[in-house]
Structures are given as structure tokens and as C-alpha cells.
Design brief:
The protein is α+β, with helices and mostly antiparallel strands. It folds into two domains: about 150 residues, Gcn5-related N-acetyltransferase (GNAT) (Aminopeptidase), CATH 3.40.630.30; about 90 residues, Aminopeptidase, CATH 3.40.630.30. It is built from eight helices and twelve strands. An eight-stranded mixed sheet has the order 1-2-3-4-5-12-6-11, with helices on both faces. Strand 8 and strand 9 form a beta hairpin. Helix 1 runs antiparallel to helix 2. It is globular.
């Protein structure tokens, strides 16, 4: 059975999860950032496999209304024991398997098979699979410069609608509620001389330098590198800073050294009956 973790126990749980880097980072930082906002954003429920936290092996984080509809609950996880993970997922109130569509985000490669078996057994099929590697960002300096008249500044909730509109043109998954993201998380953008954001990156709720985008006209200019460096300069001492990079194809893995890096997957699943 799953054990729901009370707020006052989450700090202890974070200490336990710190022993499982880096594949545990997405779930870890969802909890850490929720604590920093008194569970305002992200708003989460946390489940583990053992009430004795030093002995727990499995953590499932359910983020409530994290993305726009139809996604109303997004799942992050890490487990060192897949049998225990299966038990937690089978427990009442953890996953509502009656939903038509769900997102399992940043699923560690070591847990992906169990997640796949669970959703298939409940009549789901994957409609989007995005495979990534977890890559720690180095402290190397960035030498790229911006064109004349371009500036770097923060994204605010007022930019959310514009960024969400762009998001839908290049990502198959509904965006997070970016007005809340830009309120609570550091988000940097490059602005053209008219003040329009043309490139951006966010220190996301799950801890990576993500949600990145650059207008096609300004790509290959190193804007994302500049923005990630700016975000990294604001990271508190002791916190990890990483990126989750999409693996384009298996043929490219060896060249980039990706085969040696931890993997995580975005799994958007839908009921088979909904596709008929």
C-alpha cells in the first residue's frame, strides 16, 4: 500500500532522495520547490512505499493541475525497487486510471518498464514518448554575444499567454500553467529591440534548465547558452543544475556520449477507447 507523506515529513524524505542522484532529481525538486511555496506551486501529493522514510525505496509525486487541460495530474517518480513501485501505483488514490489521458513525466529509465506495464494493463497506449538524457551543466563560461539592441531579462506572468501559444506550435504536450511558473520560478528571455521575447529558458519546477525555445530566425546564435548561464548564476549553493536533452535517435548516442548518461522519458498516454 502507498503511504501519503505529510508536509512535515517532506524534508526528511528529501534527505532520503538525495542518495539517489541524478535520476531522482525531477521528483526531488518538485518536492523541494513545492515546500518553498507552501505547496502553492507546484501543488503536489507525495506517496511512498514505507512509512519509515529511511527504509523507503519508492517516491511518487502527483502534481495537481500542473498542465493545462485535459491533463489535470502529472506524475513524477523514482524507485530503487520496481515491485514496490508497482504496489504504489496500484494503491487507491495514487493514480486515477479512469482518466482518458495522463502524463508521466521524467520517468527514470530504471522504472519505465513498470510504468509501461501498468498503463497497458489499464487499457492505455502511449501517444507521445520523448526520451531524454540527464546532463549536468558545467561551470564553463559562455562567450556568445547578442545582436545589437537585444537584451536579456525576466519573463513574467504577463508573458505566459504568448509563450504558451509558441509552446503549442512545437510541443505535442499541453504546457504547464506558465503564469504560475513565471511567478514562482526564475525564467529568463532574450528580447528583441521591440521588447518581444525571441528566446527563453526556465529553471523549472523539477529543477532543470528547461522549457527552452528560440524563434527560428535567431537559432544557432547561442541564445539558450546565454540564458542557461544566467539561470545558473542564480542557483543556490549546494543545488544541482542540469538539463534534460532529447535524444534524437539511437544512431546519434555514441557521438555525444549519451549512452553513458542517465535517461528519463515523457510518456503521454491515452485510453484506447478514446482513440476509436
Amino acid at each position: 500500500m502507498a503511504v501519503a507523506v505529510k508536509t512535515e515529513k517532506l524534508t526528511e524524505l528529501l534527505a532520503r532522495m538525495s542518495q539517489w542522484p541524478p535520476s531522482s532529481y525531477p521528483a526531488y525538486y518538485m518536492i523541494k520547490n513545492s515546500l518553498s511555496t507552501q505547496n502553492e506551486w507546484p501543488s503536489i501529493n507525495v506517496y511512498i512505499d514505507n512509512a519509515c522514510i529511511p527504509e523507503c525505496t519508492t517516491v511518487v509525486v502527483a502534481a495537481n493541475k500542473f498542465h493545462h487541460p485535459p491533463l489535470d495530474r502529472t506524475y513524477f517518480m523514482y524507485s530503487t525497487d520496481n515491485d514496490r513501485l508497482k504496489t504504489v501505483f496500484s494503491s487507491p488514490d495514487v493514480v486515477n486510471w479512469d482518466k482518458e489521458i495522463m502524463l508521466f513525466q521524467a520517468v527514470p529509465n530504471c522504472n519505465r518498464q513498470v510504468v509501461t506495464e501498468m498503463y497497458i494493463s489499464h487499457g492505455f497506449m502511449s501517444i507521445v514518448i520523448n526520451d531524454t538524457v540527464i546532463r549536468m551543466l558545467s561551470n564553463s563560461s559562455v562567450t556568445n554575444t547578442l545582436p545589437p539592441g537585444f537584451t536579456v531579462g525576466p519573463l513574467t506572468p504577463a508573458h505566459a499567454e504568448y509563450v504558451e501559444e509558441k509552446w503549442r506550435t512545437y510541443r505535442p504536450i499541453a504546457p504547464p500553467i506558465l503564469a504560475k511558473t513565471f511567478k514562482h520560478r526564475a525564467a529568463s528571455a532574450v528580447f528583441d529591440p521591440s521588447g518581444r521575447p525571441v528566446s527563453w529558458a526556465v529553471h523549472t519546477e523539477h529543477g532543470d534548465a528547461g522549457y527552452c525555445y528560440t524563434d527560428p530566425a535567431y537559432r544557432s546564435m547561442g541564445m539558450i547558452k546565454i540564458l542557461r548561464q544566467r539561470l545558473k548564476s542564480n542557483v543556490k549553493r549546494g543545488e544541482q543544475f542540469y538539463v534534460m536533452q532529447t535524444v534524437p535517435s539511437r544512431n546519434d548516442e555514441s557521438a555525444d556520449g549519451n549512452e553513458k548518461l542517465p535517461r528519463a522519458s515523457w510518456l503521454l498516454i491515452e485510453k484506447k477507447t478514446a482513440l476509436l
